[in-house]
Amino acid sequence: MPITEPNPAEYRSTLRAPEDFDAFWAATLAQAREFPLDARFTPVWRRAVEVHDVTFAGFGGQPVKAWLALPAGTDRPLPCVVEYPGYGGGRGLPHECLLYAAAGYAHLFMDVRGQGSGWRHGDTPDPAGGAPQHPGFMTRGVLDPHDHYYRRVITDAVRAVAAARAFPLVDPARVAVTGESQGGGLALAAGALVPDLAAVLPDVPFLCDHRRGAELATAGPYREVAAYLAVHREHERQVFRTLSYCDGVLFAARATAPALFSVAHMDASCPPSTVYAAYHRYAGPKRIEVYPFNGHEGGQAVQAAARLDFLDATFAP
Amino acid sequence: MPITEPNPAEYRSTLRAPEDFDAFWAATLAQAREFPLDARFTPVWRRAVEVHDVTFAGFGGQPVKAWLALPAGTDRPLPCVVEYPGYGGGRGLPHECLLYAAAGYAHLFMDVRGQGSGWRHGDTPDPAGGAPQHPGFMTRGVLDPHDHYYRRVITDAVRAVAAARAFPLVDPARVAVTGESQGGGLALAAGALVPDLAAVLPDVPFLCDHRRGAELATAGPYREVAAYLAVHREHERQVFRTLSYCDGVLFAARATAPALFSVAHMDASCPPSTVYAAYHRYAGPKRIEVYPFNGHEGGQAVQAAARLDFLDATFAP
Amino acid sequence: MPITEPNPAEYRSTLRAPEDFDAFWAATLAQAREFPLDARFTPVWRRAVEVHDVTFAGFGGQPVKAWLALPAGTDRPLPCVVEYPGYGGGRGLPHECLLYAAAGYAHLFMDVRGQGSGWRHGDTPDPAGGAPQHPGFMTRGVLDPHDHYYRRVITDAVRAVAAARAFPLVDPARVAVTGESQGGGLALAAGALVPDLAAVLPDVPFLCDHRRGAELATAGPYREVAAYLAVHREHERQVFRTLSYCDGVLFAARATAPALFSVAHMDASCPPSTVYAAYHRYAGPKRIEVYPFNGHEGGQAVQAAARLDFLDATFAP
Amino acid sequence: MPITEPNPAEYRSTLRAPEDFDAFWAATLAQAREFPLDARFTPVWRRAVEVHDVTFAGFGGQPVKAWLALPAGTDRPLPCVVEYPGYGGGRGLPHECLLYAAAGYAHLFMDVRGQGSGWRHGDTPDPAGGAPQHPGFMTRGVLDPHDHYYRRVITDAVRAVAAARAFPLVDPARVAVTGESQGGGLALAAGALVPDLAAVLPDVPFLCDHRRGAELATAGPYREVAAYLAVHREHERQVFRTLSYCDGVLFAARATAPALFSVAHMDASCPPSTVYAAYHRYAGPKRIEVYPFNGHEGGQAVQAAARLDFLDATFAP
Amino acid sequence: MPITEPNPAEYRSTLRAPEDFDAFWAATLAQAREFPLDARFTPVWRRAVEVHDVTFAGFGGQPVKAWLALPAGTDRPLPCVVEYPGYGGGRGLPHECLLYAAAGYAHLFMDVRGQGSGWRHGDTPDPAGGAPQHPGFMTRGVLDPHDHYYRRVITDAVRAVAAARAFPLVDPARVAVTGESQGGGLALAAGALVPDLAAVLPDVPFLCDHRRGAELATAGPYREVAAYLAVHREHERQVFRTLSYCDGVLFAARATAPALFSVAHMDASCPPSTVYAAYHRYAGPKRIEVYPFNGHEGGQAVQAAARLDFLDATFAP
Amino acid sequence: MPITEPNPAEYRSTLRAPEDFDAFWAATLAQAREFPLDARFTPVWRRAVEVHDVTFAGFGGQPVKAWLALPAGTDRPLPCVVEYPGYGGGRGLPHECLLYAAAGYAHLFMDVRGQGSGWRHGDTPDPAGGAPQHPGFMTRGVLDPHDHYYRRVITDAVRAVAAARAFPLVDPARVAVTGESQGGGLALAAGALVPDLAAVLPDVPFLCDHRRGAELATAGPYREVAAYLAVHREHERQVFRTLSYCDGVLFAARATAPALFSVAHMDASCPPSTVYAAYHRYAGPKRIEVYPFNGHEGGQAVQAAARLDFLDATFAP
């Protein structure tokens, strides 16, 4: 892929929040909180790193899975990184994501309901179905913000922070959220909806400025929106209205924790301008790592090192 | 595409029905019949052909949409063709499928729940969700035959015949089922589960010999099964057990109405041997049209002419 | 495909007509009229819709095939829709295009000489050959406007309207022309060259602003022009001069019947700006349906519904 | 491309000549001979190699172009290589093919009527047109052997040998024919239809065992046949009957001059078994160079060296 | 990708070792041992897992890099897993591969000279070829076994085991070798050339039965061999002779430690039969995990779990 | 490919030469001149054109191969065209490039070290990297201008002119340099570094404005730079600094011989603006042929004719 846009950093989104955006999420989260969190932790992998199988009550009180990993022999609360997977992936197997535990942190890696059959596997159902949709998850329930798939997932993402904090060896004052692509979009959502996070680290975030994404992306799940609208031509306005409720550009404007973004200028799945759209709106202290010759893989281990540095500084006593 | 298999007509499937196959479907259909059919017909397009919007209670009593088209001015019961869409498509708009009505028959064109956002659009929800799945519909609920997506769709397909028969201007003794690809697979299912059909006309049917399809197809929805198993490696046996409950090879062995099949030898989505697998097992009188240089589009208008000829002969008083 | 051009609606073509453009067509049509039209109609499909096989004398008096379909039992003249196929397709089989007859209109569907082996099949020869050409039809005789393939096809298109009017059950005062892609380009040509049409309905028209098409299209027959010029580098000026004689932008400026256009913003075969180029020049009352998330398939059944609405209003007594 | 067939050298074609095959060609050539050859030679490039523009009367007496190149200052008759272009290419510019002249031979490089706009450019029209065809040349007139495009081209190819012999500095007793792909197929045809050639050198020849080619090729012009039959399903038998009149397998069985073939085992356009099909039937002394890791490009300069060695031995006094 | 070969497990390779195969490697390793190993370990990442930067003298005494990771606070020798990267990748950053250390083992992850610019980055030059560069290694020096790139890499791989054993906290009696793709091929080589390994775990190994790989692979580095021979047609025999010196089929026949293989039946880069070719020849106790619906990614985390189980059993006191 | 950039001719590069650019090359060439040129010529193909195998001492005194071709029987010094191959190709076989000799000139066709396994084959090792190998040269030694692959190749290119002049039948006062793609980039380098050339003829030159090339090219070797930087993210500045030493934009500003450029507007490998970048900076009299509908193949034989015309005019006494 060549560069996908001439000057992506100059782009500013004109997206505006629907009037009831904040009320919508306040009501949604209030409704979720009516279900007890019921976070349960079962150790399943006990080696130099220990991994616990996690179940907590997400949207609708439905059980959501996660892993919680930390160094063996930990005896006092650790800072914790809550991570969300990229599109199509799940939490995988207990030994698949060991970076943060090996680095000395606690790490909660949330499953994404219904996903986890595209690459890294998942274990969490999405017990909801409904109106005709394009294959994939983007358009599941897309005609109404209340039915939309990401309403449920974002609620799960917020509850995942609570679940992490419920673990005895996690220091609830030092929790960061992160993720790549879809995971980055969810991190932005959590950044807006969880008031007291220590840091937000979205990498090449998806779910930002959906219309632009659907117009420009040549790969990845923004294409699902375009494909749906190529059939349901009459629903254009309605679809983008629904999607605005899960738009990272709007969440960014409501997040205040220190943030480390990353963007890749040859990204065909998440056009760089859509990432900058969220970055420019981000309301807290912020920095962005730029990868001019990378595609959607972004900074990978180099960015992981940057994240660890950022977290070390953030979590330092 | 070149020819996809050297001698597809010689292939014989070794697929065997699970012991409770017939009981499973008897119970499923009995359960569906507990809901009144409640078929409603509303005229929406009144021209030289008239099209009625149809709603009937499918699986779980859930409303399923269809169109019923017939020549304007019809005054006595007509033979009826019940048709099912190909994968990803829905019933479309009222004026999209006019062949059978223009040919002088009644035509019920069923929507497929949840689909209809991939190409021709649909209006029927699938109010069920669940375990992690690969994007698409093939693996929705694939770990248990009772949860599997096609249990619901096949039940709808059987009920669609009843809905057609409920229309005053349809002669219930002269109903045929047809469809291309997924529609052909559903026609085979209806052929097995509806005892008194006049004809079964499956074109390049999908949903036949799923393992072989998943191993050989280079395009189309059999790939979803392969993709799911590439992640959920542990579920191989379970997945193919579930899929056997909706396998056209097994339905074919239970169908007895006269049948007209078609097969395309350069078909990358439904490898021709999988079509022959069903054809060889078909228990009624049968014939197959062979298209040696076609891909999954099969015989198109040429096959449509063959179908009309076959129907004329079948329906002739 | 993402959107193919940032702001296609703002584009204005600078194409100018060759000085003898009108004389060229006047002479060409006069020459065609020297051959008696000799339109013959043979019923071949008699059901709820009746279809007649049509032969008429096109360019050079050569026989051109068509279907004429109308509701069975019609007893007084109907408005008629004359339709032209997309590139590579022919008139198909008698039962392939039943929309307009089912809707209560007469419908003449012209074959395109030489084509009809790429998808829907055709029956009309192009008894002309000649200078080296790129495979396909775009560059057949492209070095001289008099030899060019589309001179013959456009003449056929004009004559097709006369053939439709020659059918006893067609009301000659109420004839519209339509078509998708190439068919849309031919509708524009007929719109300019037939003075008394009731409506012109070009969908995602091809044959508009050829140089821009050849520069920007990433698929479809404009690529043939680019491919030809990649070999015959010395003929650039000559080729575009020839092509200007069949350019929809120039025809649009000469057409005055009410028009309904459509354009798709993700169209890789007919870049949307080339469609707007013709639309902006159109000399009659006009409207354009915009499909922002569609490719070259355009509006399909949704646009068909729009066309029927437009025709109903146009043809209403 | 990987190897395209497991053991291509073991394949034997079952193709049989139509009963009138020899009569057909005898009549065709007799008819061509009724037109005087009228070979004209005009020097156009006079340097260390001299190139003459050639025109001779081909099929129907229609003018066919060629280049005749030879070393400057030649003063006694030279052996001559008559070469035919690959599909889509023409004779190009005078300085494009200098190998044989630089090697000290005369070289006549025939244009292929109608082609020469796909890559190397051409100057010879095909003043025939007609029935609907798939873009390209394979199916031009394919419903009748008398109308088929290759009847004209093969006649031209035979006449090209006569044209070469008409040049004063060509030794008519020492003429070889060669070509790659389509050129190789034409060389086989000339080998069968010109009785006194010194050698036949077909490289990765096309036009051999058409049905197998249409079934197995994944690229190249055999696909045109498959594509045509995917639309004109009813013409399968007729098409392959016509194509048998230009099949290299049948020509090979009628050729007796010493032959040097070449074949490439990863050839996606001319499946190697189709080449072996012709090779095994070849009636004269023969040898084949095998390129196990090449695609349709075959042996290129390595094969050129082999051809020069073979010609040196053949033409040695 | 569909399955790439019908019955890959039945394939047996006919590859035979060159007469001096064992002498060649004995001499090569003896020559390498003339350079002191000079393994140096520098801690660079000290967290819950500790990672040491490793340098040791590989082929020609040239410095080769690696990481050695183990749980922080280890105080007695651990079993060790020596791992080799897949083609084009290097050792990456210190925190990129933490599985084995998190699982409680020592882990030496060798860099592959010259590689590490295709995906995971590398730091080891190939001083016969220069600093790390973008891929193209298969044919570096391929005309002579002594010059061939893999002679150097395999020597490095053998020396890497010695380097691991030189680390104070590694138990030299309990060392296993593993890797995916190229890493699996190198593990087989080490399995043959290091006499006292505890286990050999090659996953979807590359470098096995090179001719079959070059003939059948449709992706990956076997294609480089085919591409080279498509140009250097004259070197076919010589190239495969050279490659036989680094062929895993021959190494397998010389390895005796317990082995756990894996193979994927839809693998386009390492055709499954080439993996079975090595497996069938393997001289020690062996088992193979089969992934019928996976491509070259093979078993991923599922296979990692299988490897950990196998290692636990192997290393258990 | 459509046009790759809207207005490429308007682009101006901002690339600036590193301060020591001229000193770097002066030192490099001085160092090369310390080795005697030792040009040796062995006739290997004696026909109407004679071809000599050439060896001369290039960078580091290392032997570089070439062909020198000229008309047989030449008896007085001829003007000479020195040509450099495109990326991945070598000098080929003696009879592969006969144009200039057939046109009456001497022609030295240099091999490019290490290349010549991608298409036309080569015979010159790069002893910093080994015998010819499959592509991957752009980043060989890219971290230091002194180690970089193109420092060696450009030195060879300069020495090739000296080698041509050492041939008795070459007129040293009349030497031109040319080449396509990489060959065009090398011609620009020679144009700057050899003071007394008669002409410089770069066609669709590669190696111009590397950063823009790496950002915009969708094919070809500029992609190697982007791919390298996608892994070695930390070396961005260093890589482009190294590449600036072999940038045709900077060489163009130092060349004064009359020049004939060519550019293709649909070139995906060498974006046209990068060619114009060099053209606009070119310091001598210049002209550029524009091919608006060609890709990287550029003008081919048409441009060859233009080159011959230009050379005739240049070399005329």
TrEMBL record, chains A, B, C, D, E, F:
Cross-referenced InterPro entries: AB_hydrolase_fold (IPR029058), AXE1_dom (IPR008391), CE7 (IPR039069)
GO molecular function: carboxylic ester hydrolase activity
Domain (Acetyl xylan esterase) ranges: 9-311
Domain of life: Bacteria
Amino acids binding substrate: 87
Record-given protein name: Acetylxylan esterase
Pfam name, any one: AXE1
Catalytic residues (UniProt): 181 (nucleophile), 267 (charge relay system), 296 (charge relay system)
Entries under PANTHER family matching the protein: CEPHALOSPORIN-C DEACETYLASE
Annotated GO biological process: polysaccharide metabolic process
